[in-house]
């Protein structure tokens, strides 16, 4: 049975994020300060959010016209990003329940380093770490890591599969109870309970064991946002949380149904996969105030800033198409889910590419603009219509967008019995309603057509 309570995650940007949002008068440009993120963390924990989530980019995107100009000039998506793991460490120091999720790419990292980093974060936060797994797709990122071009999509997912297999083995390399701390014997750690993994695969050779004991959650929570056929299959096998984006309730319901079915087909309990579509609500004391606020935010969005972000997401140079024409049918090497979303938007509203850029840069996913009661009505409709298990909140501007939602919308959701008033558990898995991962779980997640390595 689905949970009677929805889950809430916050998509926090370690940089300006949305083109236009950073220009809003109430936006606070404290992106280089630890106190900035710590204040957001306290706001989210006071509101009983499940987790704070940080996306990441390993380059300043140059997909629009082969230039950095549209990103840097407009403060767009990838114009500046701090390393999310360091930001999360500072947030973890001032919170005790809030989950902490960082993006790390399987394309340009190594399994031992990632397993060690997230095991360490999980221990230091008493079981609140989460890893957003991405398979980077941008040529600009490839050129920052000794490559002239990106790996093909198929290869990226094959590498990611083996990457998570190895991290699972490493997290299991210390049995529970291996850390003894017997000062009399002496026995610091029981050698019989710590095992090399001796992994030899297509992409990685890793002896192990990890030099960090097994994480409090077994494995840190795994987040993924795959929207292609490959990505959805990968997410249905590995993910505990899936972050997605939809232009309508109907498309969200279709995605929700498909992922739950895919998870069941892989032998998983569908309720063990939490689906959180993105929302970017604009809250006001009245409907008119909310609408005026949205229009002011929208007016600040430069069309080229939005198009630059969309070009990055699709991995398509949109500067080659007429700004006053429609978005054409294109082959999308990047995020297929965003392409389906903007195609749906374009066809429904007849947008030109210029208009699409402005809409994409200032989009309010789900159309949530209004009073706290009106926004709660919309969220309740999505949640009870089996379109989601909760929501990933993107703030139209930081930190005020989080503060408005936490202080105005959350109490309305709590009053309706849709959201917790206190944390249910201590670890992130407990608060998400997920069981601690048992040793050997990676064996059940690898592709069935793969030869499972010892």
TrEMBL record:
Name of protein: LLM class flavin-dependent oxidoreductase
Keyword list, A-Z: Flavoprotein, FMN, Monooxygenase, Oxidoreductase
Short name of one Pfam family: Bac_luciferase
Similarity-based family: Belongs to the NtaA/SnaA/DszA monooxygenase family.
SUPFAM superfamilies: Bacterial luciferase-like (SSF51679)
Organism: Nocardia callitridis
N-terminal signal peptide: none
Alphabetized PANTHER family for the sequence: ALKANESULFONATE MONOOXYGENASE-RELATED, C2H2 FINGER DOMAIN TRANSCRIPTION FACTOR (EUROFUNG)-RELATED
Mitochondrion as UniProt keyword: no
Domain Luciferase-like: 27-382
Superkingdom assignment: Bacteria
